[in-house]
Design a protein that fits this description.
Layout (H helix, E strand, L loop, with lengths): L8 H37 L10 H47 L14 H9 L9 H4 L16 H9 L2 H10 L1
Length: 176
């Protein structure tokens, strides 16, 4: 027995629209919070520059200081990037080892290769094979025995032999 829902279609549609509106409002709030958090973090880490009233030497010192900070940040970023790359490679190696241990290695699709016997022996034996091998010459020769031809003289004589009646005929004649 199929159970009918107690909510009508119009009520269900109204609830869905309210849920979508609420989700959209929550998404906007989350974006705004993330933006404010980013601005606050940047405000803490990067103080505002006060360039007014500085002499040329002070500006040069400030530029050198900022370049030094940029270099330090770039070194840290490079080190972190190298660590992440190393971790990804390690994860790939470990996952490959897991697949090998489970025995679920995917076999690559093999392509059919046409290769001659000489090339195959050269690949297998390396430089040991100096001259080409003729397989046909090494095969055993088989002489076909000539079939013995039976001489058929008269077809009427062979008819009794072929029908299998010859032995019965003798038994029949012996019984009389």
């Amino acid at each position: 027995m199929i159970k009918k829902s107690k909510i009508t279609a119009s009520r269900r549609l109204a609830l869905k629209t309210k849920l979508l509106k609420t989700a959209a409002v929550m998404l906007e709030k989350a974006k705004e919070e993330k933006k404010l958090e980013r601005e606050a973090t940047l405000g803490e880490r990067v103080p505002l520059l006060q360039l007014s009233g500085l002499s040329m030497q002070d500006l040069q010192a400030l530029c050198k200081d900022l370049h030094h900070k940029i270099d330090v940040v770039d070194e840290e970023r490079y080190d972190i990037d190298a660590k992440v790359t190393k971790n990804y490679k390690e994860i790939d190696n470990l996952s490959q080892k897991i697949f090998e241990l489970k025995g679920k290695m995917k076999r690559p699709a093999l392509k059919r290769v046409k290769i001659s016997a000489d090339a195959m022996l050269g690949a297998l034996l390396g430089s040991k094979v100096k001259e080409s091998v003729d397989f046909k010459a090494n095969l055993k020769t088989v002489k076909k025995e000539e079939e013995k031809k039976e001489e058929v003289t008269d077809w009427r004589k062979n008819v009794e032999a072929m029908s299998g009646m010859e032995g019965r005929k003798k038994l029949f004649n012996a019984g009389q």
